[in-house]
Each structure stands twice: as structure tokens, then as C-alpha cells.
Amino acid sequence: TLKTGFLSKEKIERAVDVIKQFAQLARNRGVYRVFGVATAAVREASNGGEFLDRVQRECGIKVRTVTGDEEGRLIYLAVRHFMHLGGRTAFILDVGGGSAELIAGNERELKFNRSHKLGGARLKDLFITKYPVPKSDHARIHRHIADSIAPSIEELRSLPIDEVIGTSGTIINLGSVIKERRDDEPLTNPAGFTFTIEELEVLHKSLAKADEREMEDIKGLDPERKDILLPGACLLLEILQRLKKERVTICDRAIREG
Q1: pLDDT in tens, 212-227
Q2: What CA–CA distance (Å, rounded) separates 171 from 168?
Q3: Residues 70, 84 contacting (CB under 8 angstroms)
Q4: CA–CA separation, 92 vs 163, rounded Å?
Q5: CA–CA separation, 74 vs 70, rounded Å?
Q6: What H or E segment, with its residue span, contains residue 11?
Q7: pLDDT tens track for 81-110
Q8: What is the pTM of this model?
């Protein structure tokens, strides 16, 4: 979808079915108002408007398409509320499917907010064709990320960044795998879990070398995310290296809570 810029009939049918189920569950619990928010995949699709018309018609939900900047603002609001930043300036990375939001702020203000077309699903569609991932394809992912984020990194280096916070499913799942490797037990509460760049580097290498069977055997890995975990690891690693930061703390709240 992100590669073609078009929502397939199969994806639309599946999405409408899922939204119907969520809407019904909400109404069964007495919810009287449901908000729908669409992000990168719908925002960029040539038939995104048709899809949203169908959602409103069949599910009774009016969906608002948000910009990348609005995604970043909402994520910042969630992190500011749940992480209690105080006077510290945090760099926040949210890796979605289509886009990645690079954000910086403290408890008082949002200081930096950029949306990049570097989501895990997008990078997978563009660069990964088989497993193990060929070294040439892996190198292409890193070059593309480095070129894309270079202007943002230059701006971020001018800020006094005290910590790095990661949000959303891809980074949480990276934390889950690292927790299993570190302690041989699952990550039951992601909020506040911290891992180091060294732990990420080891996992990054393992993901790059794994075939599909080996990927499925990795403890803590969500099978639904096996195709996008390596791209997410590549992005996070590139950013940590360029900002010269040693660790990441997970916030399990993001755009929805924002």
C-alpha cells in the first residue's frame, strides 16, 4: 500500500471489518462517541478518501486524517503526560508503519517535530525482499535512513537532549526481545523499560542474519512484526549513533492517548 500509494480491495475489506468490530465493542460498552483517526497509509493513498467515505457509511464513524506534524504533536502530549519530563528535554521517536515521528520537547514546550517517511512497513516494502536480508539490501536501508534524517539530526544536535524515549509497537517489541535476552523473561510492563545501544546493536545483527525460521524462534518477537522489526532497529540505531546517545526508555502511550 505504501509502495503503490493505493489501498487494495482486500486491505479495504479487512480494515472495514475490523473497524466495524471495534465500533460495535465500543457501543456495547456504552460509548456514545467514537473518534476515528487515519495516518500515513490513508493520507498518502490515492483512494484514501473513498475508503474513509465507506467507513463512515458502513461503520458510522467519521474519520479525520491527520498530518505528520499533528501525529508528532499528539505523541508529544502523551509522552509529556505519562513520562513526567520535568526540566529535561527528551528526544522522542515513534516508529509507525508508514512514517516515523522525530520529536523533542520538555514538560513546557514542543521544541522539534518532524515526520519522515521511514515507517517500518514502508522500509520493508522498499528494501526487504528475502531472508536472511542480503548485505546489500541491509546497507541500502541504512543509507536511505541516514540521508533522510540528516537535516533533522543537524537541528536536533543544537538542542540539549537529556534522554531518548521510544513509543509505539515496533520499539516496544524491540524492548520485549531485549528483555527476553537479558533476563530470560517476558516484558510484562513496557512503560519505563530501558535498554542500551549495545543491546540494540546485538539484536540488530541477529535480525539481519536471521532466516524466516530463525526469526520465528526469537523469544519475545511478535509474529505480526517480524517483517518490520529490522527496519525499526536500523532507524533507532542510526539515530542513537548520530545523536551519541547510549540508551532508550520506552513509553507505552502515544498518538491514541495524545
Answers
A1: 999 989 999 999 999 9
A2: 6
A3: no
A4: 9
A5: 6
A6: helix 9-28
A7: 999 898 899 999 999 999 999 999 999 999
A8: 0.93
